[in-house]
Amino acid sequence: MTCCQLISGKAGVPSPFCKIISFSYYDGTTSGAAMCGVCGREYFYDLLSWDDNQDVRIYGFSSIQAGSLGDLTEICSRFDTPKWPEWHPKPGVNDRGRKEFRAKIGEIRKTKTPPQLVVASEELSKLLLLAKAVHTAELLSDMPDSESPDAKDFTKWLAFLKS
Ligand SMILES: [Zn+2]
Q1: How many angstroms is it from 52 CA to the middle of ligand 1?
Q2: How close is the Cα of 135 to the center of ligand 1, in Å?
Q3: What is the pLDDT of residues 22-72, one digit of tens each?
Q4: DSSP secondary-structure letter at 133?
Q5: 45 CA distance to ligand 1 middle (Å)
Q6: Range of the domain at 94
Q7: Element counts in the chain: helices (H) and strands (E)
Q8: Would you give the distance in Å from CA 59 to the centre of its chain?
Q9: Residue 38 and residue 24: Cα distance in Å, rounded?
Q10: Cα(162) to centroid(ligand 1), Å
Q11: pLDDT tens digits for 81-139?
């Protein structure tokens, strides 16, 4: 396993993310929290774009506070059983647990930094097709709005990942 800090510019890297908690799902994860199995860094990720078949997905990774994943695990363990490396917590019938989960996600969203890493993957916990560190804010301001992932931006992201 290669650390998240050493994968930039590489293609076909085994995923460094040993723990993923998915926040949203559309035929696969579209946002969540992830932890690097080598250095323990924790990230929030969001879907930036996908190809026409929605198979290859581009995600932006932002740093989040250490311990966030532990907090999320504790909250979600109250209503579902942890499943690693990729956990899609099922809300179940525990209303309070679900509310706490949503509140924690909101908290993480507020404190996250701009994306530091962009990856292309079909299965985030297994293989990263491409990965690239983001170094400049200018680059991202030029990039499409991550609030509305769209296949039309896919080639643009791919070009960035290959640059
Ligand atoms: Zn790492």
Answers
A1: 30
A2: 17
A3: 999 999 999 999 999 999 999 999 999 999 888 999 999 999 999 999 999
A4: E
A5: 15
A6: 4-162
A7: 4, 8
A8: 6
A9: 25
A10: 21
A11: 999 999 999 877 778 888 999 999 999 988 888 889 999 999 999 999 999 998 765 56
Ligand 1 centroid to Cα of residue 99, in Å, is 30
Residue 146 Cα, ligand 1 centroid: separation in angstroms?
A: 23
**Do residues 117 and 11 lie in contact, with contact meaning Cβ atoms separated by under 8 Å?**
no
Q: Give residue 37 CA to ligand 1 midpoint distance, Å.
A: 7
Q: Which residues contact 50 (CB under 8 A, 6 or more apart)?
A: 56, 57, 58, 149, 151, 154
The pLDDT score that the predictor gives to residue 95 is: 80
Are 52 and 69 within 8 A, CB to CB? no
Structure tokens at 39: 């250095």
Distance (angstroms) between ligand 1 centre and the Cα of 65 equals 14
